[in-house]
Specification:
The protein has 13 helices and no strands. The chain is mainly α.
Length: 258
């Protein structure tokens, strides 16, 4: 009996090691390609980073977890999404976008929309929607979820998600950077919820994640001053609260995870 328990415990530890190692590889590929390309707002660079992360995820799944090649699309969260989760993500996105004019009314700050905004939008969705969601939901959360409750897996994933966003403080300052880290902590839970309620696919959280990060090219097109800092702080505050409406929209929806 003790031998069986020891063997099971060793098996769990080995799985955790594989999950952490796989995560570090994917995160390393994400950060390295982002640094090499330099301008992550560029849609071409964002798409390149996404392709590299997807390729790394495929390799990790095949080598570390012996996943079948035929099932990788579904395993990495790229399959057919749930209708209710997608509808909820679109409503949440609409509520978020309505905050832009509301923040302008409150602060007087006018957000600068980039020229040819459609291309930066594609870049934001590719980088923050697809690449990050494959990394944090399609791989990390999905692997942590096996044998754990939703909340246990989500809280463990939060730790990784938070640590990855701490360097923002060094680049953006304590106020904006600290809010960004706090946003990463708080938003990770509804992202995981949308993933699980959305038939274990990344599409619903990817839409909301990208919607939140539309602030990046918008701010890059304008000047970062005191008014902009206040505006982005309010935006982040709204982004911490509004995604949690997913728990209301999808409360009666049965999650596909066990």
């Amino acid at each position: 009996m003790m031998t069986e328990n020891t063997s099971a415990e060793n098996g769990k530890q080995n799985k955790i090691i594989l999950i952490i190692t796989g995560y570090l590889i994917l995160y390393g590929v994400f950060e390295l390609t982002a640094k090499v390309t330099g301008d992550t707002i560029s849609p071409q660079n964002a798409l390149l980073i996404s392709v590299c992360v997807l390729a790394a995820a495929v390799i990790v799944e095949l080598i570390f977890f012996r996943s079948r090649l035929s099932g990788l699309v579904k395993n990495l969260g790229l399959g057919k999404p749930g209708f209710k989760a997608m509808a909820a993500s679109l409503v949440i996105t609409l509520l978020l976008f309505l905050c832009y004019p509301l923040i302008t009314i409150i602060t007087g700050y006018r957000f600068a929309i980039p020229d040819n905004w459609f291309m930066p939008a594609i870049g934001v969705f590719a980088l923050h929607g697809i690449a990050e969601e494959v990394l944090y939901r399609g791989f990390l959360f999905r692997r942590l979820r096996k044998g754990r409750s939703f909340w246990n897996a989500a809280f463990i994933a939060v730790i990784f998600f938070t640590i990855a966003h701490i360097p923002i403080i060094l680049n953006q300052g304590f106020l904006v950077g600290g809010m960004a880290v706090l946003l990463a902590v708080i938003s990770s839970i509804p992202f995981s919820y949308l993933y699980e309620k959305g038939n274990n696919t990344i599409w619903a959280p990817a839409i909301v994640h990208a919607a939140i990060d539309t602030i990046i090219p918008i701010l890059a097109a304008g000047q970062m001053d005191a008014d902009a800092t206040m505006a982005v702080t309010l935006w982040m505050a709204a982004s911490m609260v509004i995604p949690y409406t997913a728990f209301l929209f999808l409360k009666s929806s049965k999650p596909s995870g066990k």
